[in-house]
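We emphasize that the prediction below concerns an isolated chain of 128 residues; any contacts that depend on oligomerization or on bound cofactors are therefore not represented. The input was used exactly as deposited, without trimming of termini.
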Amino acid sequence: MALRAYIVEDSPTIRDNLIETLQELAEVQAVGLADTEREGRDWLAAHPQEWDIAVVDLFLRQGSGLRVVEAARGRHPRQKVIVLSNHATSDMRRRCAQLGADAVFDKSTEIDALLDYCVRTRGELEPA
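Result of the prediction step, given as a token string:
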């Protein structure tokens, strides 16, 4: 069973590469895309049951990924919000956790950890 991922990333190159990598190496299928805060928040509100993980960049074409993370606070406990950013400092990781992020990964150094997280999460959602 593939994880259903909602991707909030404003760089088309990064987004396309991320989707391909997640699909090939972690059985994650993109079910929606956004490149602005408003699109991300609106989609999550309109599709509360249609995703398993949300992968959110912090700095978007318009608005902030932090507000997308915060907007997902009322999600089902099985749904995970992951921040993937080039700005994954210790302060930013704390802030993301305060707003409800389940995990934070650095785009340049923690892609393998992101993939491992997705594989573990997929395993937790599979029927016994």
